[in-house]
Design brief:
It contains nine helices and twelve strands. Helix content is about 30%, strand content about 20%. The relative contact order is 0.17. It has about 300 residues and is α+β, with helices and mostly antiparallel strands.
Length: about 300
């Protein structure tokens, strides 16, 4: 398994109290080395307090900002949560100089053992992921990625990617997949983006997840010759662009998610294909001044 980046030797602490009664409920099964970048640190949640902070950030971004529709329990608690949260891993970007709401970025990771405990992968509610779930290697589902509005910059994205890289290294991940979102629920208004993804980034048959028949929205809306690929790529959300730039593929069919006010596509990334493209695109190395520490 190819290392994406050299491992870090920094081991910064979380600002959350480690001795709280609710701490130690989350226990990653292998060592994940936290990484620092100035005042920010990226690490895995190891306490209920940290998970709660990630869920609060998700609520602010998905529901307050993007117009997702919470159920009554979520709205009362102002937290985004589901049945997967307590059994998977949560990557956090924490600004140690921010007194209020220090978690400014998060990612959710579901491995096979997590999916077995939950009964499925999250993506299985939208896609037939049989080919991915049975892939002959270690697989990881990515999801619930979001960043605080004030921190949506290159540095924070680099930090999130570095966190993904460290996790891939720690757990020997061979294949990553998950649902990536385009904002809005009208596929006709997303015709350029969906058609571009279909014509230029469709996964090979052996890795091609397909949207469930009762939820599938065809992506082949416009002919290939009608698309300006540079403009179409530029119009995509930063996280989705990041996946594509490191060699990601797209499954067949989109899914409209009315709760989250999005149109979802399935992203697939083989980790043995992305190391060189990742390093070249982000121009980052172990000692990089711009990356002293991650869709």
């Amino acid at each position: 398994m190819t290392l994406l980046l050299p491992p870090s030797t920094n081991t910064p602490a979380s600002p959350f109290a480690s001795g709280s009664a609710a701490s130690a409920a989350l226990t990653p099964t292998r060592a994940f080395v936290p990484v620092t970048a100035g005042s920010q640190v990226i690490l895995l949640a190891t306490s209920i307090d940290e998970l709660d902070a990630a869920q609060a950030l998700r609520y602010r971004v998905f529901y307050d900002e993007m117009g997702a529709k919470p159920d009554a329990d979520m709205e009362a608690k102002r937290r985004d949560f589901d049945r997967f949260d307590r059994i998977c891993d949560h990557l956090l970007v924490i600004d140690r100089e921010r007194a209020q709401d220090p978690v400014v970025g998060t990612y959710r990771f579901i491995r096979r053992e997590h999916a077995r405990a939950a009964g499925s992968f999250y993506s299985a509610s939208e896609y037939d992921i049989g080919k991915l779930a049975s892939f002959p290697g270690t697989v990881l589902e990515l999801g619930r990625s979001c960043v605080d509005a004030k921190y949506r910059n290159r540095a924070t994205m680099q930090l999130l990617w570095r966190g993904v890289s460290e996790y891939v290294n720690a757990f020997g991940i061979d294949l990553m997949f998950g649902c990536a979102s385009l904002r809005g629920t009208n596929p006709d208004e997303l015709a350029v983006q969906l058609s571009y993804l279909y014509h230029y980034h469709l996964a090979p048959e052996a890795l091609r997840a397909t949207a469930l028949a009762h939820r599938k929205v065809e992506m082949n809306i416009l002919p290939k010759e009608a698309i300006d690929p540079k403009r179409a790529l530029a119009s995509l959300p930063p996280l989705l662009k990041g996946y594509l730039r490191v060699g990601g593929f797209i499954g067949d069919g989109a899914v409209v998610d009315h709760q989250f006010n999005t149109t979802d596509v399935c992203i697939i990334v083989k980790t043995d294909l992305i190391a060189e493209r990742y390093t070249r695109h982000y121009a980052i190395g172990h000692e990089s001044a711009s990356f002293r520490k991650a869709s």
